[in-house]
């Protein structure tokens, strides 16, 4: 007979399933690993917890049949693709904090050749931003350039703002380099889960 998880583990599991499953930004293996970590640190039965994950994924698949053909996240992905074509590096779901996001952006820029890459700037959001947006708080997007030039950062911000507005998103931004751009309303759900690149 499966042991029920501790109260703390159950609460963390509820949060994981309520955010990571609808966001669809993880692979199933990553979610299973996260559950294993929860059980290891907080106690409970891994099989029972993984069953909750399977049930949440099955419920999502049923619910997806009622979703619009084009989701807000599809439109957001298209905006990022357009920005990438304009030499703006886009890093969605980059870590869990702003510090994580900036570290990932910098590492990705360096991996692509740094100053020789031709990358003009960046646009980024992290997991806490995604979770806040899922809860109805809008999506904050960081942006900037490599080197910290304020005027150039504002130029990147304007390009991001323009592409978002052109895609039909309502955007708030005061036009300064100190403030992130906010999509005021966005449904952050996406279909399915991520897949590993070599599984595609």
In short, what is this structure?
With 200 residues, this protein is of the alpha+beta class. The protein has helices spanning 7-23, 28-42, 46-64, 72-85, 98-111, 127-134, 150-166; strands at residues 88-91, 121-124, 139-144, 171-172, 181-183.
Give an account of the 3D structure.
It is a single chain. The chain folds into two domains: 7-64, no CATH class; 72-183, no CATH class. It is built from seven helices and five strands. A five-stranded mixed β-sheet has the order 1-2-3-5-4, with helices on both faces. The termini are far apart. By secondary structure, the chain is α+β, with helices and mostly antiparallel strands. The longest helix is centred in the N-terminal third of the chain and has 19 residues, at 46-64. It has helices at residues 7-23, 28-42, 46-64, 72-85, 98-111, 127-134, 150-166, and strands at 88-91, 121-124, 139-144, 171-172, 181-183.
- SS elements, strand count: 5
Could you name the ranges where pLDDT drops below 50 across 5 or more consecutive residues?
none
Helix content range: 40-55%
> What is the residue-averaged pLDDT?
93
Class per helix and strand makeup: alpha+beta
